[in-house]
């Protein structure tokens, strides 16, 4: 991803936060993380987030999904003998469709990203509107997509160790290099 | 505290959340916790909160302080061999003055509640405006007060075990009985 794309996505994310009444400091706005997963199609498969705190006991982030943007399927494995990350997603604005292991829901609302369709394997659907939340147990494959207006989702969790996440799509690189343009 | 007082404080809290664009479900609005600490002066010493999630690994709440309302000084002790609760306060709306152990700040902005003045002993001041946050290490005495407009504060933390909190004021009862009126 080019630095200019990162900057554009950061600005769009900051606008969405402002629209939802979520205030960031200038320092935080500058370090909004733009995850393109090395796939080169941020609008389709990507995620924007701000990490407020990540200690050895807990973590809190606010996530942004642009309209129909998908965070690809992944799992949080155990690390250093600790169970995998446990996370609670709370929809703050917009809507988000979440998919976890379990009985596949008929006629899911999300559009599976065509390029990586084979790497989406769990289809038990939970739709979250503002004020609604869902806790994903450790060791559960999951993916999620923003609704037609996008979404802002608070993520409360145990310690975050993103570098250990296992994605179903083998083409994914969680921390790709950002190229100066 | 009377049931009718609880209901009034819940309604006022729900209004403040709405004003700040924070959406609760109807079920959540009905279980907003109103803590009067058994002191019978909720407006001066009290706290309103909604707990979103509290697992054996992490906890997330949104706290409301009415204008100049104070959450009295307390400490989170170790429980079952685990270090005391660690918590991050993030101001979302209004302003909050937080006091922790350390060098006393000259001319603090808070008004120490007169009735319990002797039970406020730490005066290192941190003022948080929207977007600003502070992490309180385990085993640190602290108290906090809403600014002139009150405050909404997100609390991200390790597991919450409020019943073990130790308050400096011996008159405080963390979980007083609610009387039907």
UniProtKB/TrEMBL annotation, chains A, B:
GO molecular function: D-lyxose ketol-isomerase activity; metal ion binding
EC numbers: 5.3.1.15
Entries under InterPro entries matching the protein: D-lyxose_isomer, RmlC-like_jellyroll, RmlC_Cupin_sf
CDD domains the record matches: cupin_YdaE
Keyword Ligase in record: no
Keywords noted in UniProt: Carbohydrate metabolism, Isomerase, Manganese, Metal-binding
SUPFAM superfamilies linked: RmlC-like cupins
Pfam name, any one: Lyx_isomer
Recorded catalytic activity of this chain's protein: D-lyxose = D-xylulose
Protein origin, superkingdom: Bacteria
Known cofactor(s): Mn(2+)
Protein family according to the UniProt entry: Belongs to the D-lyxose ketol-isomerase family.
Protein name: D-lyxose ketol-isomerase
Organism encoding this protein: Cohnella herbarum
